[in-house]
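Consortium newsletter contribution from the modelling node. Members have asked for a concrete example of what our holo predictions look like. Here is one, prepared for the NAP complex that several groups have been discussing at recent meetings.
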Amino acid sequence: MTDTPTQLFIGGAWVDAADGATMAVDDPATGEILCHVADAGPQDAQRAEDAAVAAQEKWARTAPRARSEILRRAYEIVVERTDELAHLMTAEMGKPLAEARGEVAYAAEFFRWFSEEAVRIDGGHGTLPDGRNRMLLSRRPVGPCLLITPWNFPLAMGTRKIGPAIAAGCTMVLKPAPQTPLSSLALAAILKEAGLPDGVLNVVTTSRAGEVCEPLLRGGRIRKLSFTGSTGVGRLLLAQSADAVVRTSMELGGNAPFIVFEDADLDKAVDGAMVAKMRNMGEACTAANRFFVHTSVVEEFGRRLAERMGALVVGPGTRDGVDVGPLIDRNGRGKVEELVADAVERGARVLVGGRTPEGPGCFYPPTVLTGVDPGSRLMDTEIFGPVAAILTFDDEDEVVRRANDTPWGLVGYVFTEGLDRALRVSERLEVGMVGLNTGLVSNPAAPFGGVKQSGLGREGGRVGIDEFLEYQYLAVPVG
Ligand code: NAP
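And here is the predicted structure:
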């Protein structure tokens, strides 16, 4: 903690906010203040944008191999410092150390993946239909970007955007979530050490997100917004991006269905449910939000899931043997409590958990609800906590219709041993990603993203870099 930067990172230098403002970073396991970081205002954001704009032209002309090697070095440093970064993330966000280490590996992998993609940006050459004209296609960086990240994966949500932006030759202003600024500042220090030129990445930590970001989006110099967060904020930012026609990528909320058919292997389904529900204490956009379980297996599935959930150890993420850390803050926990109370009022039965523990910290126990009424609020609200809500279904058409009956479409999980059914149901689900007999889909080599109100564009995979590139077509008449 002592070496972690707490100032803004602008033009390659660590600086205070122009008005000297700072904001507190809390430890969600104790509610105590960990430290203070600079709290940027619009003037600081302007300076960060100036630095990104000034660096853009030269950065776009750097050799792809040079950009690739910076990312590769950054990957190696992140891996080397796994323990330090994991402790930092656990301190500011609460996840258990083992999960934080897993996130460091996941986050680092975006740097390695995009170091490999930086040297594979292709173009094209062709003869037009008239047989005379030729076309040359090249791909250019889109220009200075604004990157806005949430608190739930403080390191990986940063590298998933910074990696492709660097690979493509874009400069950027990163605004992390105010609950978890330290991971992003640590990342900036690592990239500087890895040789990233001044001004390519600028980090503004702030408690005044709207005041800081809106002028950048409307000002006409930022050419791209890459946002990860809630659908409500995404919608607002899309509207703000319209004036200057800023290109956008949106990774928004989810409401994942988790479907267990009567022919599912229940061992796999319960293992999958533990991952799809409990990764990150349920604070994940990919978290299973609605468990649809066939009537014939619901009792056994519910019993086995409740047994596994009840055996998890809740406590501060730094303590050995802890599986479930605190939720991010009192607001986050309050929302979970309200959703559970609403479901119980409408007739849900609590198989395990459901009661907020006494004492400091934002802890909530792993909870399984069964017999959930489809009209319960948690059916159309991201729970963002360790609560599994089980409903029943009787046939395939019915469950597909109910799974799709939501404005979101990020991910769905399907458990069945029938290949026909697996493919048929996956194709019918209105989602960007499907976990087939698995509770984990995230992988840096795969295109991550949703349909409907879960977002626009994809991050990671071969297509991740496309979000940061534009085509230029050159018309060439040939005698
Ligand atoms: P959030 O409230 O939407 O905030 C996300 C980021 O946007 C934060 O940095 C936040 O800063 C900023 N922000 C809020 N209002 C803004 C404004 N007017 N202008 C500019 N920036 C603004 O979401 P969250 O609670 O941090 O994260 C949870 C949400 O993210 C969930 O809905 C989850 O599903 C989603 N998520 C999606 C993915 C995905 O890949 N699809 C991945 C992870 C999380 P402030 O907090 O200061 O407002």
